[in-house]
Every structure is written in C-alpha cells, then in structure tokens.
What does this fold into?
Amino acid sequence: MSRRLALCCAPQLIVALDFALLGVSAPAIRADLHLGDAAFAWLFSAYSVTFGALLLIAGRAADALGRRPVLAAGLALFAAGATLVATAGTAPVALAARAAQGAGAALMTPAALALLSEAFPEGAERRRALAVYGVVISGGFVAGSLIGGIAGGALGWRASLLLDAVPALAALVLLAAERRQPSHAGEQRDAATLPRGGWDRAQVAAACAAVLVLTATGVGAVVLLTLHLQEVRGYGALETGLAFTAFGSTALAGGAAARRVAARHGPLRAAALGLAVQGAALAALGAVSLNTAAALLAGLAAFGLGHTAANAAIPMAALAGAPPVRHGVVGATLATVQFLGAAAGPLAAVALGRAAGLSAAGLACLATAAALGVARPRRG
It folds into this structure.
C-alpha cells in the first residue's frame, strides 16, 4: 500500500478501531469512573452527536478550504480526544473528550475520501484504491476487538484506549511528510461551470440508500451476535474478538471482488452483489441455531465477504456520480447516512431479537440488492 493510500484510508481504520475498542472496554470504564446509566449512554452518544452534527459542515469545509488542512485538524482533534479519554479521572472529562473525538472523526472522514479521489484518477486506479478503503474498516473492527480484549485484560482499559490515538498520530506524520499532489486535469473546476448533466444525482442517491441498508443491518447484526456470544454462549471479550476474526478473514476477497465487478458491470452492480451476499449470510445466521462453531464462523465469514464488497463498491458509485469539486460533500453525505444506519440498526435489531432480527436484516439486504441490480449503472 502506498503512503498516500495509507493516509487516505487511515480515518476508516481509526473509526473502526475506536468503535471496537470502546465496545470491549465499556464495562470497565463504567466501573472505574462510576458512571450511572445516563452517563454511560452518553459515553457513546457524545461521540455520535458531534459526529453526526458536523459531517456536512466538515464536507463543505474540505471542498472549500482544502482536504489536507481539514484532514489534519480532524486527526489532531481525534488524537487529543482519545488521549484525554484514556487519562480521564471523572465522567465529565471523559464525555467531553468523547465529544471531541466525534468532532475529529467528522472532520477527517469526508476529507480523506475526497483526498483519495483527488490522488487517484477515475478508473482502474481509483477502483483499486477504494477496494482497499473498503477493506480497511473490516480490518480495523477485527483488530480493535482483538486489541481491546488482549490489552484491556493485561493492561487495563486506559492503555487500550490510549492505543486509539496511535494511528491518528501516525497519519499526521504521514500527512506532514507528503508533498502536496497536483489535482487531476479538469477536476477542480468551479461547480458553476459544470454541465447540467455532469452530476448523476440518481447514482449518488442509490449509493446512499445502499449504505443505509448495509450499515443498519451490519451494525445491528454485530450487536445481536455479540449479545448472543456473550450472554447465551458465555464468551468473554477476547473469545468474542477471536470469533469475529472470521468476519475479517474474507475482507481482502471482498474488496477484490468489488473491484472486478465494478470494472465490468459498474459499481452499483458490485454493491448489489455485496449486499446480496451479506443478506444471504444474515438470513442463514438467523435461521440456524449457532450451537456449533462451524456454523457461526462460516456465517461470519460470508457476512464479512459481502459487507466488505459492498462497502468498497458504494463509494465508487457515489464518487462516479458527482463532480470532483463536490467530493467532500458526497463523502460527508455517505458518512451521515452511515451514521443514521448505525444508530437505527441496533435499536430495530434488539427489539426483534436474534432470529427475527437477523432474518429481517437479511431480507432487507436482498431487497436492496435486487433494486440496485436493475438500476441503470454508471461505471466508476
């Protein structure tokens, strides 16, 4: 992976790592800081509120002020917030630090995607870069689950969360070392000069619909499966993290599949294929008893394959449907829809329970895949 691609993918890794580390460490944080129910909920919500509220503003800032300075500000703010959470002695400090992390994530997420589109020209190069971009979030989630289980058990939750700052600081070093790259010819035209047909809004809307369903069902399924493993099967944090390595084991294959299908049939068809595989996996996980490790691991591997393929293809579709001068806003819009899906998915999943929730999630993925499959594609 080139240094430039690593830099563009860093926010994906950081956000996924943070989600997994906090989830594994949350019970210990609650006990150490004496958090009541409301304060404990705000440990997650403080991040989500600032993240969701600032995304579109951050996307516009990235387009207007430049992707690099906005990315740098986001990385620095996230690293500072992570350090403050890890050293917090009181609940108010921890909650304020979580809010700062959310603001940092909002700044860096759309800026990084827009920077990727600026660094890699449309076509095969960008498809390869976005395939890696889609794989990284799966890898970050698995790594965070394992690191949280191992470091949290051996060193405590503070050391575990302090590791959250490391990739953000490393990305800042990479950003400082990178020389500014010239924009691709013609890509930074003023939006007012674009032809009326230059922005395929229908394709951006289809990509947003796909990422909403992908994220809502994916995060909801992870919550249901985590509860099942820990409360029904009696797994600890480390055993749960090890089980979810099956999800990440197929990530590279999923990214490669998305790139190949997008090149031949367009990114919307690639997203449809990924959603179909995820849907079939979730429906199967809801239908079987999961009393055997083989059934669980096979289902998680298929889930990871489909999720990564769709997660790689969706940004391809969205960026292909929008002019480069709007890529910051497009990235922010995708991230906002992801945030809404991540917020709504677990609520619906827990309300339905494991079997019904996973089955419903599978059907939603399959229905969306069918709709995308008949959509008029535009190649990215």
About this structure: DSSP finds 15 helices and no strands in the chain. The CA atoms of residues 48 and 342 lie 10 Å apart.
